[in-house]
Amino acid sequence: MTSLPMTITSEMTFETVGRETSNKRLFEELHAVIGPVARLLDVGVIVSSRNDITSAMILNPASSISRPGFMCLHSREKKMTSAASLQIGPGADSSDHLFLFFDEGQEHVTGIMRHLIDLALSNLRLRSEEESLLEELSSSWESLEAVYEISSDLRAVKTPADLLERIMNRAVAIGDGMSAALWIQDGEDLIPYALANVDSLANKNSVRGLVAKAVTARRAIVFNDAELLAAEGCFDSELEGATSLAVAPIATGQGLLGALEVWSAGGNKCFDSHTVNLIQALALQAAMVIENDRLHKATIEAERLQQEIEIGSKIQQVLLLGQLPEPVPGLSLAAYTLASRQIDGDFYEFFRHRDDCIDIIIGDVMGKGIPAALVGAATKSHLYQALNRLLASSNGSIPEPEQIINAAHTRVTTQLIDCESFTTLCLARFDITNRHLTFVDCGHTQTIRYRNSGEIEFLQGVNMPLGFSEKEVYEQTTISFDPGDVFLFYSDGLTEAHDHSGELFGEERLADCVRAHGHLQPAQLIEKVRAGVVAFAASEIFSDDLTCVAVKIDDHLNVLSGNRAELVTTSNLLELEKIRSFVREVCDCKIEPRLDPAVTDSLVLGLNEAATNIMRHAYAGRDDGEIRFVAEVSTDAIVIRICHYGAGFDRANVVQPEFDRTREGGFGLFIIEQCFDDVAYTTDEQGKHCTRLIKTINTKE
Amino acid sequence: MEMIMEKVADVSVVLLPGGNLDASNAKDFKRDLAPVLAKNLRLVFDMSKLQFVDSSGLAVLLGCLRQLNAAGGDLKLFGMTKPVRALFELVRMHRIFDIFNTREEAVSGFVN
Q: pTM to 2 decimals?
């Protein structure tokens, strides 16, 4: 430490003159850090960029500020008695010094200043790092712009090919003599999906080569050394003669794999971190374009499928599922289809030949979708044509079921074989008068027969499905049935419905269900079957359609004797259909000559209303009440008595309905009284209520 | 059951399911029709598949007419089978409903 006489005459502001930039920055930093402290401690500070302490000291401080290489950080008008010199920066050769001037006894300021210098140096380092980062960022701006431009293209309505072309052009615009290829992995191969500045490239193996390596390792690969590239890139044919290379991998959440490869064939273009970043961004965008395109196509495909499903379900409803026939006295039937997600070729149809003869056809085409639905529709149509041809050639006598099937078979089988499909079906004819069931089973599921006793039987024929062999001759089987018998026809979708573990519902479960509920009306039985399958599978959605047709031979077939008929039902509204067929049957079978159909219709309607009132009001919605119907036909009238143990009824309390649109109900009684000539309500001592309905008829005409 | 519906201009033609419309299924029928009524003002019901309608079924149809009228729409019927037509006449509903023989007539019934 040397004692120096030093007078600094004026309060100085920071100033630099003629300094090189790096020093200027250093001085700026020193000023910012040291200036305030020096002022506080009342210390004079001069910075010199050369080790020129002598000149610094001999200088008139007032003029020192204008002299290159010197700077005064702090001064005051005061004589300083002590001085110190501190080297700025590491290394013995550093020429930058900081001179301190202070009063005696202030020596500790040198320590403080040493710290402050180090702090300033470290600040300077940090700042320059920050600046170089900023610089990098500003050069990335160009890349960002490219990325942004393509992003806005993505939003505009452009074709994926346009977008990819744009991305590829951006990639080769990185420098002169660039080529680029976008590779997408497809199985074992990498396929050149888009190219720029290169005519064509062959698929490459996804295991060997630099592109494959980038795809597999999912990281960018960069070569700026031509020799090294020549050695490493020998598996990628396009890299012959290339001097530098950058490959950015693509891997998306949707499983799209690939890479954007950019290479330079000439010059000394190097890929720095900016350009590699840009290539990675472009690769990402290319991935987005391809993925969006795929998603778009998948959406269109899904829509197409949905449309097919809608068309198919319409075909199924219109063409495949027959309408229930007009009632056949002596039997009641119900049909049900639970449509699956796909369209099935399940179908059913009814040929009602006479009042006492009906054919029920249920079939199942192999396969799914519209083709299966169309084959089903075609099969139905062939059966119908076969029936009509046979009817025409037999003067109207009803052809046997086996005749119908064999006639249809010769035409339909060739077609089925041609379209590699086949159809299982069962044609069952119910002859009520003779109590015969005649059926032809073409490889269909076994029909379940329920007897009144609770016994279950499977009915199976001997024939193959239609479409197996042109040589097949179809044979019918005839059995007798009894009142109360139930026959359940169904498609294999029902027995092959499975639970989550894959176990099938199966014939045994189905048979158990029929055994338990065979006493019910067909519609109720089918509902129990449906509920059973749904409960078993724990799902209401099945891969196959569940189709079934239930036929019940009426219980009262036996009691219909002489001029008297009797029917006992519960108060369940589902019995209405049975009640209607009961009165129709009485009219059709017991009255000679036949009544005008309009009169029969009105008696059916009237009795329906009377029964509905009893179920709804007398039994107040209970469905286990007993209702007994007795019909007696005399020469001039039909008398029907309906007896029940529900609540009584006083006609006087009911007023005439309004015949405008103001009321939606109240027509029941009016209808009953219009349909019958005499309506009376009585109650006996046991509490049995009876409604007596009389219709006068003229049987003499 | 799902209703099969077809649009002819702004008129929706609904094919009513086949079979019977009676006290046992009128409620379900009403429920199945509800979405159709909610979405369409000009409706035509194709009745040709209905073999039998009773007073409960009639009440549902009347309810449809009222609901549509209240919303500024209308309902036309066509293709009635004989027994159904007989019921309508019996309770004089043929004066309340616009009933046509054919689908074309029913649809063009909306033009005026």
A: 0.41
